[in-house]
Amino acid sequence: MNVICKSTDIKDNQSKGFNVNDTLFFIVRKDGELYGYENHCPHLGIQLEMVPDQFLESTHSLIQCSMHGALFQISDGLCISGPCFDQKLKPVSIKEENGEVYLID
What we know:
By secondary structure, the chain is an all-beta fold. The protein has no helices and 9 strands. It has one domain (2-103): Rieske Iron-sulfur Protein (3-layer Sandwich). Helices cover 0% and strands 41% of the residues. The protein is globular, with a radius of gyration of 13 Å.
């Protein structure tokens, strides 16, 4: 397991992008839970954010692809609107423990 950040680095209803060993991914905290996904839109394979660490739409309740506006559920990465409807973001394994967030190999 690799420590990627402190728990306090990702506040509730916020997201943060990471690059570990050339793997791009992001983490969202929603209702105290952390969710991690590869930073890769299933539609065109592009990165989801246009502005660093901004993966959520304006109400902070869905993940949004900045290129085509596709919307994904935070809890499971399912696309509920847009050109990749019914496809999913690929999850990454993360763990939060003792005030730190770990990427699980």
